[in-house]
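To the structural biology subgroup,

Please find below the input and predicted structure for 3-methyladenine DNA glycosylase AlkC, which we are adding to the shared reference set this quarter. The sequence is reproduced verbatim from the submission form. If anyone notices a discrepancy with their own records, reply to this email rather than editing the shared folder directly, so we keep one authoritative version.
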Amino acid sequence: MSALFKDLYSKKFYDFFAQACNEIISDFDTQKFITLIFCEQFDGYEFKQRVSHTTTVLHQFMPEQFEQAAKLILTLVKHFEDLGVKADSLEYLFLPEYIERYGINEYGSAVSAFEVITPFITCEFAVRPFIVKYEQQMLEQMILWTTHKNNRMRRLASEGSRPRLPWGIALISLKKEPAPLLPIFDQLKEDECELVRRSVANSINDIAKDNPDFVIHFARKHYGKSKNTDRLIKHACRTLLKKGNPDVLELFGFNSRDINISEFCLKQPIIEIGSELEFSFSIQNRSSLSKKLRLEYGIYYQKNNGNLSRKVFKISERNIRADEIYSVTRKQSFKVVTTRKLYSGAHQVSLIVNGSEFEILDFELIE
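Predicted structure (tokenized):
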């Protein structure tokens, strides 16, 4: 079985989909559909390209009037559900993309389609151009969706309006001014569904990258109200915690007073690309009270221009008793991965306790 994500779009899938279309769409030409799908460029298409390609090909077999086409898509969705196709099967992302591309000027029909499609396959990407074009209308609609009986629709209200949704277009106006999202957060922050609450947390964390004061105000207002809300706020503040924001650290009870670091050392000061950096240290709470600890370390990676750039990694969060000494050993992989280019040369590792960076040690990465 292929391990490539794009190969969800297989011959078997398209045969199944074409057979379903043949039962729903009049005069559907199965052979022509398959031939158009497997064009000369198909093998070179990545996943998102295959999504868009499938949308384009399907459009050739649909009615010209969007409202009629949307009704057929909704009938297809019902047919797939009856056939036992699992919800959130990513192969079907071209269905909401169809609504996005060909229904952008048909607001009412498109929004109605989103409500039917979302329980089957997420429309979080497809709603975003509608937010750009019809911001006030769409946000009012999303506020209505926060009370929907289906948790996937409630999640769409928060996930679809995330300012920085991965894979989705950025919502520039909401990045600049996130206040219009507050009614969505207020309604969903204590939602019974964890997936919905996690979506809210991710949206607020997006906002922290552009408007940290907004997030700090929201966190101060709602922290301490319930366990679920506290977990949501903690997750929503993860970017600010990594950055060592003092207001957020104080909110969660982290401070570095009366903390002593000792015996910080590297197993080897020179390591090869592909191996691991191993380091250890001890931490002591010199106060007379138990303290909360947030332990992290920073790796200062060598960049192509010779400068160093820090990336922070979390070790743990725990309580440390009065006068307790806690010892830690950690390993950091320097295996070659596609997400980070490794350069040989001088690097550094630092210890970060409750947002405060303590000691820094040098090491060298070699070929």
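Summary notes: The mean pLDDT is 94. The domain at 259-366 is CATH 2.60.40.10 (Immunoglobulin-like).

Regards,
Lab coordination
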